[in-house]
Design a protein that fits this description.
Structural class: alpha/beta
Oligomer: single chain
Distance between the termini: 44 Å
Number of domains: 1
Shape: globular
Radius of gyration: 16 Å
Helix content: 25-40%
């Protein structure tokens, strides 16, 4: 069953969607996300301006990681109905969390995500929390840092999505051709002596450092 899941996501994203995004949209894939052993896990962190962002990152996964990376999605938006939740689970492999500032929801989020990491799954988290101003990297919330601090696995991979908002602007459902890039940095290990605020700042700096210098 796990192997069939890998094949499904590999064909969907690595074969079909990656080819489509490269040829018809103009996305440049500079580097694949790391392929690591099945008993390890990490968090992918990236900036977020477009609904195309998750597709682009999933297209950057090697076969061994297909079906193991779970994009973290807001339940109030992506799981509003049973059909919508089923479709996002089937085609995106999403895991859902409640967006709420309440303390019990925050702790529940950290517990659910840390459990997934410790079981060998990987997570895709947008630390800004939502799609912000196009082309502007907002402040990082501390959720991803808290998950890593509460997990046995302490690695994360920074990704910078360069101008992916232009082919699919916020509020526009029409995909148009426009050059954009996905830039993947080296895997990082958090310093567990730091608190979640400092780790979130370091994560933001790592993502921002990948931005092309000519922009």
């Amino acid at each position: 069953m796990i192997f069939l899941r890998q094949v499904w996501f590999y064909v969907l994203y690595r074969v079909i969607m990656r080819w489509f995004l490269k040829v018809f949209v103009g996305v440049e894939f500079d580097r694949d996300l790391p392929s690591i052993s099945s008993d390890e896990a990490y968090i992918v962190i990236a900036n977020h301006n477009s609904h195309m962002d998750t597709m682009v990152i999933l297209c950057s996964l090697p076969f061994s990681m297909q079906g193991r990376v779970y994009p973290v999605a807001a339940a109030d938006y992506f799981a509003k109905s049973k059909i919508k939740k089923f479709l996002y689970s089937l085609f995106v492999n999403a895991v859902y969390v409640e967006r709420s500032p309440k303390r019990n929801h925050v702790h529940e989020f950290i517990a659910i995500m840390a459990k997934k990491i410790d079981s060998g799954s990987c997570l895709l988290i947008y630390p800004e929390g939502s799609r912000g101003e196009p082309g502007v990297l907002g402040e990082f919330k501390s959720g991803a840092a808290r998950v890593l601090l509460n997990s046995r696995h302490l690695n994360y991979v920074p990704v910078y999505l360069h101008e992916t908002w232009k082919p699919l602007p916020k509020g526009d459902g029409l995909l148009i051709p426009y050059l954009s890039r996905v830039l993947v940095g080296p895997m990082k290990e958090i310093d567990k002596s730091k608190d979640h605020r400092d780790i979130a700042l370091s994560m933001r700096e790592d993502v921002l450092s990948l931005k092309p210098l000519d922009n």
